[in-house]
């Protein structure tokens, strides 16, 4: 499942070679600020309550958006790296209104292109949206698309649903990987959706794609401003490029013969992602495998030439061989130092480890913080951690929803 553009939800992984007791920090750590809300003792549970980071008021700072029992709470990010007290903004999308994580995905994305992230819920009847307003409020949730919902046969354990800008107009579109292929619906600036329909007979259930075997994600793979499909299938990494002119996707192309099920990659063991970790124009494919971090770097496109360099082991760390586990140690990609290149971030036993991305190489890893680690009691099953720019300085920060408080450590 792909997350909010401003946040990376960390739901499992890691204990690197650096997690032995007594490791010194690589440099001075920022103080961790704590605020007593949206925590475990307040009744928030990972299996019931979605929490994300997204900029819902357009100020360039990530806000907490929390789907709780009575509805949606918002805590706005502030320049000092703390959050304003959460406010119940929408009395919908919550457990009290019948929303369940195993039936109804809820996401936060700008679906009307106004620079503010909106609330999107895949309910029983279809797609409901509450649009973010300039004053921090939201419009009343309204049914915008009679598709992608429970009543139309969509199931969390079978059908991936994502939000991404397919046409480059700044408004995120709905993309669903259903039974027979990929269905889309375009978000529009007038707060409607259009063009709902199937675009490609691939990546679906009846073609053998499974949620527990084959991750599917959306990102701009050819740097033309439109999101493309990346599917990690049996044989490797497939890409289907979106054409805004034709309003459809190209047929799947096997771009990298790795990171797939046939090469031993498993959803429950090996996180995989796509992002620019090399400083090249196009995103790279990155996997946390048995031996460590492997990458297929993108290369300048030339007709007839491969679009990716051969897969290489970039870091002998963050892998199963070094003790990292998906149910204990989250790992992800985020821009920690603000250079525009994504870095590897791992929450290990001892704390937060970062390996900085650069031109065809990673530097580190370094233990950057002794907070948020498994040894300090941070269990992904109870205490989610997110990455996002809380104070608007261009660097992703760590936000953790712990036992008794929400904690922030600035980068």
- By DSSP (H or I, 4+ residues per run), the number of helices equals 0
Strand order of the largest sheet: 1-29-30-31-2
Low-pLDDT runs of 5+ residues are 1-27
Radius of gyration: 20 Å
| Anisotropy-based shape | globular
Mean pLDDT: 93
- Helix content percent band: under 10%
Outline the biggest β-sheet. Answer: 5 strands, antiparallel
End-to-end C-alpha gap = 25 Å
Pfam families: FG-GAP_3
Keywords: Signal
Organism: Kocuria rosea subsp. polaris
Protein name: VCBS repeat-containing protein
Describe the structure.
- With 411 residues, this protein is mainly beta.
- Among the domains are: 100-267; 271-380, no CATH class.
- The chain contains no helices and 31 strands.
- The protein has strands spanning 8-10, 32-35, 51-54, 63-67, 72-75, 87-90, 106-109, 118-122, 127-130, 142-145, 160-164, 173-177, 182-187, 193-200, 216-219, 228-232, 237-240, 242-243, 248-249, 253-256, 272-275, 284-288, 293-296, 312-315, 331-334, 343-347, 352-358, 361-369, 385-388, 397-401, 406-409.
- It has a 5-stranded antiparallel β-sheet with strand order 1-29-30-31-2, with no helix packed on it. Strands 3-4-5-6 form a 4-stranded antiparallel β-sheet, with no helix packed on it. Strands 7-8-9-10 form a 4-stranded antiparallel β-sheet, with no helix packed on it.
- A hairpin with an 8-residue loop joins strand 3 and strand 4.
- The two termini are 25 Å apart.
- InterPro entries: FG-GAP (IPR013517), Integrin_alpha_N (IPR028994).
